[in-house]
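Posting this for the archive.
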Amino acid sequence: MDLSKTAVQKAFDPGHRRHRFKLWVRLTSSNPPRVLYHVYWKRIAATLACLAVAGWLGAAAAVWSFVKYRRGYTGVRFVDIAFFPVRAQEYRTGLGRHLLALGRSELEQQRYREGYALLRAGLDRVPGDLAARREVALMQARFGMVSHAVETLVSGARNGREDFDYLQLMFGLLLEAHEDDRAVALAAELLPAVPDGKLSHQFIALQAATAHCNRGRYDAARGLIAAWKLENALEGQLLLATAEWDQGQRDAAIRRLEGQLERFPKRDELYLHLVRLTRDADRSADARRYALLRQFNQPENPTPRIDLLHTYRATGDFAAERREIEAYLGIFRDSDRALLQLAGFAAETGQPELADRVARLADARKLPGETFLVARVQAYVIALDYRTAADLAKPPVAGPAADRSSYPRQLLNGLHALALLGLGEVSEGELQMTKFAGETRLRGGDALLFGKRLLLLGSAASARRVLERACALDPLHQPALTELIRLEVAAGNRAGLVEHLPKLLRMRRPPRQLLEECLLRLDQPEDQALRAQVKAAIEKAGATPVS
């Protein structure tokens, strides 16, 4: 728009057609001489507005192209960029879903670190996506970050209160992490004031009752079960039986479960509980009968048959055990899982011949040999054939580093040290056991096995090292910590009790007898505070049977 020079007319017409594209007009006057300007303010405002819109759209187009082609967010919408101030949430949600898709793609290609980072970034932008929240929590749990997984799920609890799968995972991890009080508090937030029959609500109430039971608050658990009518479900009856059993009412617990057989004749967990409880109550005939019923209900499942084998072994019916083993191998010889379970049974019960036989079948199926070799060596150790165990478990002179550092190989190194101790080669055995305890990420169940065998071989110091290592790696493994404290009590190690006992007091239902033994060892003036905690725990466990 050019600047125009126009002499002043007697009557200036701003609407004249020759001024229609101008933003202003310059007017001159000779009498008196002066210069005047007529400014079209509306036109200037409209022009500036058009330029601003064009600039805004141009900038938006540049950003949109950058995000789409340089950042790889191919699904970005131009309207979200152009009107970002009012569509920021839409852009954030779209970007979050894009990152989630990329994360899942990375996981499919087994790039777990990158996949996890992308899933986490996507979830931060789409916090209401329950499926993504579950995926992130599962990865955190698999990476050993159970506390992080719990936080991830609890953060979305209100959105997932009607999602049964979400609730199962969340409460499962809470209870696994021994977060019983937190589970109770969360259930109180999620449950309505008036009990109803909604499945998700009843599930939440059951988890709260389970958490109460875990902490020995049996009256609170029974109150929840009664309020929500959970006794109509098998899970409620199992929980009530658990409470009775823990309070020393063993026959009542078994009778309660036996009374449910007519209502739930095909429920495996009912038979599983009956087998375990009758076996622990030394009712071998009943344990055998329920194991057989469980097997008849699930003829294609090897687990009930393993329980039946344990029952035969416990009752000394070795002829029936042999028959069942032959039947088992006839049915499951082509099942990798079944062979692993039978190898575990052979190892636990100290049957080297059976372990060797299973290992040959596994070798014929090209299954990983070290896993079955561990079972063989363990069976020889328990059978006190230390020479064969030492020969089998001897570390290889050479081989791939990955093979030498695998968990089965590390277990074999520990079993080799055990065998050396059994053969009387104390110096070499203790040296190898110290190395094993320091280098292996030992699991709690395996630590218990090593600890008990070392005690039988008179190596209390090595047993302590192994159990301390297991407790350091898994602070929530209560059986390993309990066994460690038993060891400290037997050794009269007051310093060890002061270190480890507070951890046990924070766990679920510590054994009353063990607490009483600990109390006798805490005899120094500076132990008064810890003694008070132990006394309180003993009073709380008053209804718990001595163990």
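Residues 1-9, 543-547 have pLDDT under 50 and may be disordered. The CA atoms of residues 442 and 470 lie 6 Å apart.
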